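[SOLVED] Need 3D model of a two-part complex

Original post:
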Amino acid sequence: MSTRTTFELSRDARAERQALRETILHLMAENSLSSLRTAQEQLSGWLERYPDDYMMREAGEVLARSEEALLAVQNEKAP
Amino acid sequence: MSTPEPFPKIRQEVQAVVTAVENRTGLRSRWNGQLNVVDQATADFLSHQRFNAKKEWSCGITVVEGITEDDRRWRTLIHEALHSVSVGLTESDYSRYRGWEEGIVEWLQRCYRPDVLRSLHVRISEAFFVELEKDWLYEPYIDALERIAGQIAEVPAQMFFEKLLQTPLKERAAFVLSWGLKEAVDAAKFKRVFAEASGKLRG
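Solution:
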C-alpha cells in the first residue's frame, strides 16, 4: 500500500485539502444530521480522488460515529 | 466443522492491542469480540461513511481490509481500543461531548503507543507516527485539553488524561472544572481558559 502524505500533493491540492478540513470542522460544529452528512459527502468526494489519504479517511471515523450517535438520540426522542 | 477465521492476523492484533490497553488503563474493554473486516470498495458502495476502523456502538470493531497490512493501522487500532475502555461512552453523551472523548482517546493513543508496540514486538519508528499525526483533523480537541491541563499545577499530563478516561464522559467537563478550581495556580485564569477550551470540545 502506498503511503501518500500531504507533502506529495500539489500546492493546489494541499490548499483544497486544507479548505476541506476547515469546512468539515465547521460542519461538525453545527452537529446536525444534515451538516454531518454534508461533511461526509465532501470527504467522500475527496477520497474518491485521493483514496490513500489515510488521515483524511481516519477523520471519517469521527463523522460516522457522530452521525450514528445523533441518529440514535433522535430515535430515542421520537414518539 | 467450523468455518476458518477469514482474517486471523488482524483479529490477533486487535485482541493484543485491546489487552495491552486494558493493562495500561486498568479499565475493562467493552469489545464484544466481534470483528468485521470489510472490503473498501464494498464498504464505499454500501455506505456513505468513510473510515479506516471504528468501534461500533454495538461494541464490535470494524476494520477496512485495506489497512490490515499498513503500518499506520497500529495508531488506529490503539485509538479504537481506547474507545472500547472509555467510561460512560454513550451515543447521547458523545453527541454533546465529542471533543472530551476524541481528544482524550487520541492523546492517550499517542502516549501509550511506543510501549504498546514494544510489548507486541512491533518495530516502527515513532517519527513515522509523529509526522502522520501532525495532520490529525481533530487536533483542536487535543490543544484545548492540553491548555486546560496546563492550568492545573503539579498534575502530570498523563495522569490528567487517564483520570478523564476513567470519568464518565458526561461528567468530564464538570469534573475538570471542579478539579481546576481547587488545584489551579490562578483560579481566575483557569476559569477563562476552561470556558474558551470547553466551547471547542463540545460537538
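Edit: Strands of chain B lie at 35-38, 53-55, 61-64.
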